[in-house]
Amino acid sequence: MGGYPLKTEIKENQRTKHLPFSRTLLERVRRQSELGVPEIFPGLEGSGVSGISTGRYVNEESFLKEKELFHRRPFLVGFREKVSRTGDCISANFLDRDWILLRDEKNDLKGFENACLHRGTRLISGADTKSIRKIVCPYHSWTYDFDGELLTGGCKVGNNKLREIPLIEIAGMIFAGKTSEILNQINPIRNELDEYNLDSYVPFALLKEEGEYNWKVGVEIFLETYHIATLHRNSVAAVVEKNSSVYDPIGEHARILIPNRTYKAAETPSRKDLIITYFIFPSTILVLFRDHFGIIQFQPLSPSKTRCIRAVLIPEKPKTDRMIRFWEGNRDFFFRTTSEDLELAPEIHAGIRQRERIYPSSWEPGIFHFHRSLENAE
Ligand code: FES
Ligand SMILES: [Fe+2]
């Protein structure tokens, strides 16, 4: 399983005009597009021989350990467009945590624990954006300003400030982390995403579903392309070059480059010639298409139950019916193809439960990288 570089170095002078990848990496993609199969990462041949124990997909103990891990990693909690103007406020949740996200007078984004200091009532509810001047508790009207300071006089509490959670905005998305050190873990991906100028992107469609499978089963489907010719034979297979891909780890995260059929002939490949996937450890996947991108995030609910959130982000709010129809077409394609993956997840999970071990092949380097990251996660 060893042999992964911790970071792929991109030297400034190696950068291509259109894509934030080194020439070496683009050449690796070209080679795979000619071979039509996923790249076998050097040193990985034969790694699948001993397989992966299936206990970690079904045990309560593994599940609780992984749930703890989620609290030590950044997670996606919302979209910037929903809190873009001063006073905009939404509630957000992730696993068992509830947060308030709001835009303050200085246009800074703030995140607070969504619980009143008095008797704990949730302060902001519902999915829609509210426009507020103060945070007012619906139970006894204790009132807080945009710094989370309690303004109501005469109230005795241990601490009169709502607990704050650090947030960052990346490509129209809002990520939260318990501490700013935790948020820094996203930096390698953040720096690369900055190169695509996605900051003004807005959500066009959002889906939340729960399914009967372990969260890792969901993530793993998006970490390998070996299944494209089979599972996506009536969708993505028409666009991409067979099962080709390069899985390129960035610490715990990764980029997965999937060449389209146009890649081979392109002298200088650009966004239109490949699908760029970023895996943000432990459970967020971004899929960059030529002019929009999709998000898939998994939240563990129990060893065999997972919530999956999918979203499509586009460059700006569509202004005409024609544009709406255009983005609806892209949305349907993204949801249809990812549904092909997600509908299989309970089937994979059901089979995993029957077995003691499973045997990913060397054509699925992402699975080994993911499990190694989980084993080593601090
Ligand atoms: S619980 Fe919030 S004011 Fe009483
Ligand atoms: Fe897939």
Automatic annotation (TrEMBL):
A GO term for molecular function: dioxygenase activity
UniProt keyword annotations, A-Z: 2Fe-2S, Dioxygenase, Iron, Iron-sulfur, Metal-binding, Oxidoreductase
Keyword presence, Oxidoreductase: yes
The protein's required cofactors: Fe cation
Annotated InterPro entries: Rieske_2Fe-2S, Rieske_2Fe-2S_sf, Ring_hydroxy_dOase_asu_C_dom, Rng_hydr_dOase-A
The Rieske domain, residue ranges: 76-176
UniProt xrefs under CDD domains: Rieske_RO_Alpha_N
Keyword Secreted: no
Pfam families from the UniProt entry: Rieske (PF00355), Ring_hydroxyl_A (PF00848)
Protein name: Aromatic ring-hydroxylating dioxygenase subunit alpha
Lineage: Bacteria, Pseudomonadati, Spirochaetota, Spirochaetia, Leptospirales
